[in-house]
Amino acid sequence: MAIWFSRSRNIGSQLQKCMKTREFLGSQTSWTSSPFQSSSSNVTSPALFLPNLRFNSSTISEKQLTSDSDDDPQVQSLDFPGGRVPYTSEMKFIWESSQNRVPCYRVLNDNGELIRNNNFQQVMSKEIAVKMYKDMLTLQIMDNMFYEAQRQGRISFYMTSFGEEAINIASAAALTKDDIILPQYREHGVLLHRGFTLLEFANQCLGNKADYGKGRQMPIHYGSNKHNYFNVSSPIATQLPQAAGVAYSLKMEKKDACVVTYFGDGGTSEGDFHAGLNFAAVMEAPVIFICRNNGWAISTNISEQFRSDGIVLKGQAYGIRSIRIDGNDALAVYNAIHAARDMAVREQRPILVEAMTYRVGHHSTSDDSTKYRALDEIDYWKMSRNPVSIFKKWIESNGWWSETEEAELRGNIRKEVLQAIQVAERTEKPPLAELFSDVYDHPPRNLQEQEKQLRETINRNPQNYPSDVPV
Amino acid sequence: MTVREALNSALDEEMSADPKVFLMGEEVGEYQGAYKISKGLLDKYGPERVLDTPITEAGFTGIGVGAAYYGLRPIVEFMTFNFAMQAIDHIINSAAKSNYMSAGQMNVPIVFRGPNGAAAGVGAQHSHCYAAWYGSCPGLKVLTPYSSEDARGLLKAAIRDPDPVIFLENELLYGESFPVSAEALDSSFCLPIGKAKIEREGRDVTITAFSKMVGHSLKAAEILEKEGISAEVINLRSIRPLDRATINASVQKTNRLVTVEEGFPQHGVGAEICATIVEDSFGYLDAPVERIAGADVPMPYAANLERMAVPQVEDIVRAAKRVCHRSVPLAAAA
């Protein structure tokens, strides 16, 4: 019920200003399907899906309207709250879908070769590229081994990120340490790239006393203040409006940092997606919304999730600059996020990035995806569109990586992961006091009493309390 | 000072004292607040500190929580707490639990405030009382002011508190005027969270109440006085943490208890108080606890029906008499 009248006049005049300085979404006087360019050379335009709408000046005896009448928005338009709107006497519905889907941006082909005629300037150093590859491989092996550990009963639950290694690592590589991450739950590669160790991961999964979460959360619900990685929260998409809130705080601080939040294709169905994007646009908050469109929300295929052309077009609906990228191409991800961050911070605006990919693994260890999708579909993506292999081919072609280094790295990672799990398993569980702490800033009297009573009960009946858990 | 003025002054002083405090909600800025609680604040602090939000409780609650995660101190106003249901996941799963789940890494110094409970003639979806809902959730603090002094002191305490606080106001109390002490007018005035107030001392029966029902209970106490029953009226002020010590001490003195609340009876605040008395003061009770609550129906609109769905002064008087073994039969509507 907010009363927008007094603001609508401002927005109207702002829209007019926009039109002069920047190509806007169509012009006010004609809706032609022309691609728009922005100032940054890395951003290419998605094809607008609006069908050709031109004015009929037949019923009104005013001056002839040309498509260049950007300079004269007063012609054939009406005042409404929110600004001037051109009108037409031709009734035409905007069709629910366009002929052409929005293209996705990619740099490397499936063989790891640079696609011809692209404008990619190789600014990536060997150092960054090799670190990216090492992290992608570590992520893949770590996921494999933790998954196996769950199958063996050593941890209770796990979620892998197979097929999304490029999205995880390349996006993290394009950001700075000050950028704040609000994850969904399939982005532990981002944390890995920032320096979270294998042991820190294992500690959280085992819920021992070295876990930063003090054993309070299920496995994969990582969180680390020092890595600017907010805690994973199970309800879907709640992080989206929260990200806008964090970005608002950053904006008030005027810091050279932005917020980056991740979500899947399924998460875009939540009400919070609408609220988060809408708000971020209205508040002009520096937040990058990264959608990992991996085709599946547990067993729900995207054809059952939405009827739009994916997520990228939804950004436009909120007035948010958006791009669709090939999420399995690490270079494309790196470039796009790099550009997005630049825009978000410099121009203080939200950006939406839809990274197309495939969820190779099961949703989690509680899921068997072969029950609802074809084995050869999974195999195809695993073998022919594997982001780790694709990037490996590229760095090898630059002479930056060799098979011996590969074998050595694989061996080392395996050993480290195994060791991490073993050490984490042997580490003590959190002590009893941690049951009652952090509910509030200071424990209230009732919790203090309960803890006291519990300790007395344990002292009276030591045989009922596990001996390997500290009191 | 009216409750409205008290809340307004509390917001003003806390926003002035700490630049991280900011207010957001529907109509809080240009409209001066749906109930004029935030009058004048937009002019004084500007649109960066007083945000008019689009209509999405889930949205602005989520944003508030996110801002609090990062270190700001938001005050999120709901037009009524009925609409907060659209944001309840953010309140419970994010705000209440984050400090615990993150082991202290993410704390949420946020205040959710707005009118709660029945107003006058607004029907079922505008009259629900949420004290018991939020009161059951660990991680939250829940406050229910009655007088202007309560409103000032508790709101200031809530804003300064590092934990998420649910601040349940009452629309019908906004316009009521109460005397305020000089101490309460001071800008550093604060009431402790978790302490109830004994509004009226007595010897024969304890009546616990919160928010509007405190007024009803005090009126009932006057009537009972004339009939020779001296009632002690406790203004709970804080639903979570509940001041069990004060309630128990009072019952141990009077040996009888009547709990009064506007909300629905099952799993209500009265049920919790009853349980706590049974646990700690069972031997002191001379009569079973009487529980006065709203009727177990969605709030009807028609004025005569609405009157019967909400506790009235006579209901409290009758309950107190029953508990004191004066034989008065249960009224058909109670």
UniProtKB/TrEMBL annotation, chain A:
Keywords: Metal-binding, Mitochondrion, Oxidoreductase, Potassium, Transit peptide. It comes from Rubroshorea leprosula. Its main location: mitochondrion. It catalyses: N(6)-[(R)-lipoyl]-L-lysyl-[protein] + 3-methyl-2-oxobutanoate + H(+) = N(6)-[(R)-S(8)-2-methylpropanoyldihydrolipoyl]-L-lysyl-[protein] + CO2. This is 3-methyl-2-oxobutanoate dehydrogenase (2-methylpropanoyl-transferring). Residues 134-431 form the Dehydrogenase E1 component domain. One of its GO terms (cellular component) is mitochondrial matrix. Pfam families: E1_dh. GO terms for biological process: branched-chain amino acid catabolic process. Gene3D superfamilies: 3.40.50.970. Belongs to the BCKDHA family. InterPro entries: Alpha-ketoacid_DH_E1_comp, DH_E1, THDP-binding. Its EC number is 1.2.4.4. Its cofactor is thiamine diphosphate. It is found in: Mitochondrion matrix. Heterotetramer of alpha and beta chains. It is an enzyme of class 1 (oxidoreductase). GO terms for molecular function: branched-chain 2-oxo acid dehydrogenase activity; metal ion binding.
From TrEMBL, chain B:
The keyword Metal-binding applies. Coiled coil: none annotated. GO terms for biological process: pyruvate decarboxylation to acetyl-CoA. GO terms for molecular function: metal ion binding; pyruvate dehydrogenase (acetyl-transferring) activity. Its EC number is 1.2.4.1. The keyword Membrane does not apply. It is found in: Mitochondrion matrix. One of its GO terms (cellular component) is mitochondrial matrix. Keywords: Metal-binding, Mitochondrion, Oxidoreductase, Potassium, Pyruvate, Thiamine pyrophosphate, Transit peptide. It catalyses: N(6)-[(R)-lipoyl]-L-lysyl-[protein] + pyruvate + H(+) = N(6)-[(R)-S(8)-acetyldihydrolipoyl]-L-lysyl-[protein] + CO2. Residues 1-176 form the Transketolase-like pyrimidine-binding domain. Its cofactor is thiamine diphosphate. Its main location: mitochondrion. Pfam families: Transket_pyr (PF02779), Transketolase_C (PF02780). InterPro entries: PDHB_mito-type (IPR027110), THDP-binding (IPR029061), Transketo_C/PFOR_II (IPR009014), Transketolase-like_Pyr-bd (IPR005475), Transketolase_C (IPR033248). The pyruvate dehydrogenase complex catalyzes the overall conversion of pyruvate to acetyl-CoA and CO(2). It contains multiple copies of three enzymatic components: pyruvate dehydrogenase (E1), dihydrolipoamide acetyltransferase (E2) and lipoamide dehydrogenase (E3). The pyruvate dehydrogenase complex catalyzes the overall conversion of pyruvate to acetyl-CoA and CO2. Tetramer of 2 alpha and 2 beta subunits. This is Pyruvate dehydrogenase E1 component subunit beta.
